[in-house]
Design a protein that fits this description.
mainly alpha, 0% strand, rod-shaped, transmembrane helix, coiled coil, Bone marrow stromal antigen 2-like
Length: 170
């Protein structure tokens, strides 16, 4: 046995202090109740973990996750459509505002034109009232002028006759 101890010294140097602390720890045994408690805790944690792993991978859970994913995709699609509809609505509201402004401008122009038409109708009515008076005055002028023209013609005829008579006497 001496030779074995002597041989072990050559193979591995022995630290006496380290050897004594290891033998002190190894020499102590874990109390049975503490071992059982640790075993119960390990089993108590392992069983729910296995249970939840089985439930998480169950068909209902997988289907639920798939349904949630599909729901999120549909939600995103609907959100995009809503955004597009909102943009279109804003565009159409801007166009409507432009149209309303055009309508206001056209109404103002129409009112001005109606006022001008009424003014011109008033002038036309006034001129229509003055027309008979002007025609009467013009007719009287024409008649007076015709009388003056008749006497001028008579005078000219008389002169021509006189001139012809004188020429014949000679």
């Amino acid at each position: 046995m001496d030779t074995e101890e002597d041989m072990s010294e050559f193979l591995m140097p022995i630290d006496k202090e380290k050897d004594s602390s290891e033998s002190a720890l190894c020499g102590r045994k874990l109390p049975l109740w503490l071992g059982l408690l640790l075993l119960l805790v390990a089993v108590g944690l392992l069983v729910p973990m296995i249970y939840f792993a089985v439930i998480a991978n169950s068909k209902a859970c997988v289907d639920g996750l798939q349904a949630q994913k599909e729901c999120q995709e549909v939600n995103q699609h609907v959100q995009r459509q809503l955004t597009q509809a909102q943009e279109l609505l804003n565009k159409k509201e801007a166009e409507a505002a432009t149209c309303k402004q055009a309508v206001v401008t056209l109404r103002d122009s129409l009112k001005k034109e109606q006022a001008r038409v009424e003014e011109l109708q008033g002038e036309l009515a006034s001129l229509n009232q003055q027309l008979p008076d002007a025609l009467t005055k013009e007719r009287r002028k024409s008649e007076a002028s015709a009388e003056d023209n008749g006497s001028v013609w008579f005078f000219m005829l008389l002169m021509c006759t006189f001139i012809i008579c004188k020429c014949l006497k000679k």
